[in-house]
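In pairs, describe these two lines:
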Amino acid sequence: MKSFEFQLPTKVIFGRDALKKIPKEVSQIGKKALWVYGKDSIKRYGLYEKIKDLLEKSKIEYIEFGGIKSNPLLSKVLEGVKIAKENKIDFILATGGGSVIDTAKAIACGYYNEEKIWDFYERKAFPDRALPLVTILTIAGTGSELNNISVIVNDETRLKLSMSSPVLFPKITFLNPDLTLTVPPDYTAYGAFDAFSHVFEIFISREYKKECLTEDFMIMLMKNIIKWSVKAVNKPDDYEARANIMWASSLALCGLTKSGIGRYRFIIHAIEHTLSGIYDLPHGLGLAILTLAWLKKNKEKDMVKRFFEKVFDLTIKKDKSKLDLGIELFESWLKELRLPLNLKDLKIPKKDLDYLVDKAYQIFTIWKVEEYSKESIKEILETAYSN
């Protein structure tokens, strides 16, 4: 393995009784919070009142900032920064999925660097200070509750970009799988695939390609997500399925899967950010379609062969027909999750492909990805269109 640094300062409180520990834990973070959440679901299912009562018992003052949408917008971040400054808050409490937590992270660093927020996403500058963040997760997938990454869409340019910094790690994250029982099957599938893709992209693109402990860990996570995602989609009230997916998605991008493997590339993510940034697609859905297309175009690569061997237990060696079987098994999993398999079914106009290629190439340029040309990006999108 290669040399590496690893930092995970977040305290995790996991289980059905996790929220009961809010008064003791959160009161140590601050006395005045900006409470960031999504639209109606936390009120519809009673979570809003439960957290409200816990905050009041903790004698924590709070300012509500709801209405965060999926594929969260820069304009909403700036609105949150303004409210946070006007009310001189101590910390941010994020209740929701990745979009809510990513917005909260952007507000947290924007509190001190409002004029530089988008520079952070374009990687022209890096935040070195942020308000403390506490998260309560309600949908598994992005892993934002246990990492230092935030993804935001610029309303004007429709570019969807990410930033990362050690200051963005949450101080505490509360993980109660019961909170995900009401997530519908389609969004359960989107989240599960998002978590899977984080591990998959690191697995197939990593610089250090020898077998190692980190590889074994990635294989275990991918197998776990495949197994439990199907159970959760078919039986939404299965606590064990929800618990395993929640923990796997948190671990998938917390840094452990990157330890000792050197440089890696999120090629499929870069292309998908274009789709969800422009069309507001669920991120995991776009990733599933693009990953299937990428596998079809790259099935001969050594690391793809190893993926099929290790995750789907195939013995490939020189039998190339097993590569097609690997594709079939992967596609069968997507079908079990009831996911569409191509962009055409999503009603994305084929005439938009060149525009999508240009937008994706912008992200590649910002991320300094030099291995892929516009032609390579277009080949993947064309394959994803028909699959």
Notes: The chain has two domains: 11-179, 184-386. The chain has a mean pLDDT of 95. The domain at 11-179 is CATH 3.40.50.1970 (Rossmann fold). The first strand starts at residue 11 and ends at 14.
